[in-house]
Design brief:
Number of helices: 13
Strand content: 15-25%
Shape: globular
Helix content: 25-40%
């Protein structure tokens, strides 16, 4: 069992910064969106507050936020304006946005040889996923049922249908993450489909993998490549946790009204 979680909050927020005339935002929402720091979009209070509160509810107590060198707004909020009571917060800096594996590698000192949960700062995960990963031992991944995502998430169906699919063997261990599968490939897979939303439990082996993988064709160090290196080269088994519940996603300005509606009444306790 682990009580450590690493939250990836370094993203550039390019889509969030993009203006969208179809969405009416408050002045505070528009101001936050313009910075691209999705974690701080106000849903009555910063979106990241909901993420942290869910982690605390699941039993995590030590949190590290991977941020950019200039993300002072996040530091100031949690260190001065709203310091958590149920959690301790550390910060790790990813100097250059070189991909998700590079962001995870920035948290190696925080992990300090322990297993850790790794999640995105712009996703709100169901408590069942966070709690189940905490209870496991070794490496694991939460995969989310596509039909549940289509029914209950705020994400557009065309995006959901393009999400990476996790493939497991007969023992319930991850074989690989299938990125951007085409329609023919998807049609041949058994139902239901289980989607990867970057919700992981990692053993310390992940850091060796992050150091050893080459950059992807787009020039970034991808966490899925590091996971595959762990499986193929280091012999690490990733237990698959299947979750028939949706994940909420804060990617663009169009997501803000829908997430506000879905999180209405959710109690936040930091």
């Amino acid at each position: 069992m682990t009580d450590k979680a690493l939250i990836l909050a370094r993203g550039l927020g390019t889509r969030m910064r993009k203006d969208d005339q179809s969405v009416t935002l408050s002045e505070a929402e528009a101001r936050a969106a313009a910075t691209g720091v999705k974690a701080m979009i106000p849903i009555d209070r910063p979106f990241l507050d909901y993420v942290l509160s869910a982690l605390a509810d699941a039993g995590y107590r030590r949190i590290c936020l991977v941020v950019a060198p200039d993300h002072d707004v996040i530091r100031r909020y949690y260190q001065e304006e709203c310091p958590p009571q149920r959690l301790t917060l550390d910060f790790a800096v990813q100097e250059v946005p070189r991909g998700t594996a590079d962001a995870v590698a920035a948290g190696e000192a925080f992990a300090d040889g322990d297993d850790i949960l790794v999640v995105n700062s712009d996703n709100y995960y169901p408590l069942e996923a966070l709690g189940e990963l905490r209870q496991r031992s070794g490496s694991a991944v939460a995969l989310f049922e596509q039909e549940a995502m289509l029914r209950e998430s705020n994400i557009a169906p065309e995006r959901i249908k393009a999400f990476a699919v996790g493939l497991a063997d007969g023992d319930g261990n991850l074989v690989r993450i299938l990125e951007k599968p085409d329609e023919t490939t998807l049609a041949a897979l058994p139902r239901p489909l289980w989607l990867s939303m970057n919700c992981w439990r990692f053993s310390p082996a992940i850091f060796e993998a992050c150091r050893r993988i080459p950059p992807s064709p787009r020039g970034e160090y991808e966490i899925t490549d590091a996971v595959q290196y762990c499986i193929d080269r280091l012999g690490v088994r990733f237990q698959v946790v299947r979750v028939p519940r949706p994940v909420l996603d804060m990617t663009s300005r169009a997501d803000i009204p829908a997430i506000k509606e879905r999180l209405k009444g959710v109690r936040v306790r930091l």
